[in-house]
Amino acid sequence: MKENKKDIKNNGCEEQTVDTAGERTEQQDSVKAEAETKRDDADGKNDEEGKTVEDTASGNAEGAEEDPLDAAKKEIELLKDKYLRSVAEFDNYRKRTLKEKAELILNGSEKAVQALLPVIDDMERALANAEKTEDATVLKEGMELIYQKTNKIMESLGVKRIDTKDAEFDTNFHEAVAMVPGMGDDKKGKVLDCVQTGYTLNDKVIRHAKVAVGQ
Fold first, then answer.
1. pTM here?
2. How far is CA 72 from CA 44, 63, 68, 75, 126, in A?
3. Which of 31-45, 94-108, 152-166 has the lowest mean pLDDT?
4. Residue 169: CB partners within 8 Å, gap ≥ 6?
5. Under 8 Å between Cβ of 210 and 194
6. CA proximity to 164, closest of 200, 140, 111
7. Per-residue pLDDT tens for 19-40?
8. Across-strand partners of 175?
9. What are the percentages of helix, strand and coil residues in the chain, rounded to 5?
10. Sheet holding 204-207, edge to edge
């Protein structure tokens, strides 16, 4: 009887041990399955991240390939804009220059005319006074004053008389209107008389002096 109870107790312990081992096996299987699931999820996430990185790198590569073309187009537009601006500025400059040149040609004598206006005023006053007097000396003095004033104005404008007194004949300044023979060797090739005074403007001959030359 005691032996039967012992056997039953032993059988109960064995069953309990089997049950405990089974539970442990199930727990291990569950942990293993959960680990495998997490590993699969991690692998899937890594695959997705790798694909995203590849897509991003591919997009960047495509963008890098398009950048030179876009840069070239922008540079062409910039150069085109600069060219059009330069053409417009040059056209405006050309028109302005032509206008200023036309005004200069049309009104180039303005300064000279303004300088000579006082001389005209003096001439008008001299004519008015000539009607009031018959003294030739007074008229002569008035004419001399006007003449001197005119010469000063002409000099201020850069106009000078060409000197012909005892000068050697020079075709750059003189125009021979007469050749006078028999004046001696010392007068040969020299200006004997000035028929019309010559003038220079800023050292440029604007009228040759008409002279008689010894032959």
1. 0.52
2. 43, 14, 6, 5, 80
3. 31-45
4. 176, 189, 190, 191, 211, 213
5. yes
6. 200
7. 444 555 566 666 566 656 666 6
8. 210
9. 70, 15, 15
10. 159-161, 199-201, 204-207
